[in-house]
Write a structure and sequence with these properties.
single chain; 465 residues; mainly alpha; 2 domains; two-stranded antiparallel ribbon
């Protein structure tokens, strides 16, 4: 009996106690994850700007992802945005229960330009599901990324960025992200990932990961959206730091040019044109003089893009884009009103045997025009275009308002360049439903709201003493 008892203790009791002790000392990964998520929600509810700062810090690194099992993954920026959004919602509920002011929720439709076109676009996208075989996948695409992008990267910054100080904190983090991206480009020039190939600034591999992806366009699209932000920081900083922001902004521009991204070159030219035209109109310079001054720059950019387009490096990209455009318009012709259904373009590419034979794997449409026309038809395209136009129009309207202070007008002008540049870039790229497009637009909308409210921009608000 005693022997059996000893064996039971040795074979069952001791392992059970040891397992319990190990479980307490080293909890399971899901438990750790759950605790971290709960702690993040509490922290972001108490300090929403903390969550938003982390969102901005990670916004272009969409290839840094957290995996839940083998089938579910989400970029860190999306996860942080979701946690911040939920944290803000918790804060609002708690404040209402405690009868305090509703943090950041005094919003009107005017504070969220493009809200109506966005709702129309979502309605058309939902209607396009009648042409989708896998409705569940279509609904998932409708919620994320379509609905998710506007809520997390347009509505959320408008709620959180409720003061000039928070706006300038956002600017400084964006500039830091731009410097990190530019550093990757410089490193790729000094130590190219493919020795012997055409040398250009590209994203790099960091500890086996590709935070920005691998394509040169993915680096350029970050830099061109941050360059105008660098101009803002250079203007509003003190004399000692101004030279560093000027040098940093010039460095971002140089690296963007060294990506040899035709999208990047075109976007920088558009941003320069917007800035030139706005400043010229403010000074009463006639349109003919504006055109005469900008024509040489436009000609140089056009010639550079044309010459590079005929090189061996660009020829394969040209053929790829042309074939993707043909597939997109084939989808559009089959369903011209509401499209072939959201999330179906890559499926159509996968069915094209010639494309797969030439390029290996299906890719997204290289341009938001092709994407929206193919998947949501003319109705979806018009609604999406109206959404982007409403955001740009809100910036222009506020910029031209006589009641807006000169300092705010310059900030809005720079953010107008960022908005125009981000949109133009996506006419030829594939980041139309992710943070890299929508976060710069959301920051611009937040600045519009602050400018409309007539909040005085003090030197202390900029963070520079």
């Amino acid at each position: 009996m005693r022997t059996a008892l000893r064996e039971s203790i040795r074979n069952v009791g001791i392992p059970a106690v040891a397992a319990g002790a190990l479980a307490v000392a080293f909890p399971s990964l899901p438990l750790i994850g759950g605790v971290l998520l709960l702690a993040s929600l509490i922290a972001f509810a108490a300090w929403p700007m903390l969550g938003w700062s982390l969102v901005v810090l990670t916004y272009p690194f969409i290839y840094l992802q957290v995996f839940f099992g083998e089938t579910m993954n989400i970029p860190y920026v999306d996860l942080l945005a979701l946690l911040t959004f939920v944290g803000v919602a918790i804060r609002v509920v708690v404040n209402r229960v405690r009868r305090r002011s509703a943090y950041g929720l005094r919003l009107t439709a005017y504070d969220l330009p493009g809200l109506l076109p966005f709702l129309l676009f979502i309605a058309v996208a939902a209607l396009s599901l009648i042409n989708v075989e896998d409705v569940a996948a279509g609904v998932k695409f409708l919620l994320r990324p379509l609905t998710f992008s506007y809520l997390m990267f347009v509505a959320l910054p408008v709620i959180v960025i409720d003061s000039p100080r928070r706006l300038f904190t956002t600017f400084r983090i964006m500039f830091l992200v731009g410097v990190l991206a530019a550093a990757m480009g410089v490193w790729s020039l000094l130590s190219p990932p493919e020795p012997g190939a055409f040398r250009r600034a590209v994203p790099i591999i960091v500890y086996g990961m590709t935070p920005l992806g691998t394509n040169h366009n993915l680096l350029a699209e970050v830099l061109v959206s941050v360059v105008p932000v660098g101009v803002i920081l250079a203007l509003f900083t003190g004399e000692r730091l101004r030279r560093w922001y000027v040098v940093g902004t010039l460095a971002l521009t140089a690296v963007a040019l060294l990506t040899f991204s035709r999208n990047g070159w075109l976007t920088l030219a558009v941003e320069g044109a917007v800035l030139s035209v706005a400043l010229a109109r403010d000074r009463g310079i006639p349109w003919r003089r504006i055109a005469a001054a900008t024509a040489p720059i436009a000609a140089v950019v056009a010639v550079a893009i044309s010459l590079f387009s005929f090189t061996a490096v660009a020829r394969s990209s040209n053929v790829n884009r042309l074939r993707l455009t043909e597939i997109a318009f084939a989808q559009f012709r089959e369903h011209p009103i509401i499209g072939a259904g959201i999330g179906t373009f890559q499926e159509a590419v996968a069915r094209d045997k010639w494309y797969i034979a030439d390029f290996g794997k299906p890719q997204e449409a290289h341009g938001l025009i092709q994407k929206t026309l193919a998947e949501t038809g003319v109705l979806g395209f018009l609604a999406f275009a109206a959404l982007l136009a409403a955001v740009v129009a809100a910036i222009i309207r506020t910029y031209r308002s006589a009641t807006v202070a000169p300092a705010w007008r310059f900030i809005l002008l720079a953010l107008l360049c960022t908005a125009f540049g981000s949109i133009v870039f996506q006419i030829f790229n594939t980041s139309y439903f992710v943070s890299k497009l929508w976060l710069p637009l959301g920051v611009a909308v937040a600045a519009v709201r602050l400018a409309v409210q007539g909040i005085a921009l003090r030197r202390a608000d900029t963070g520079f003493q």
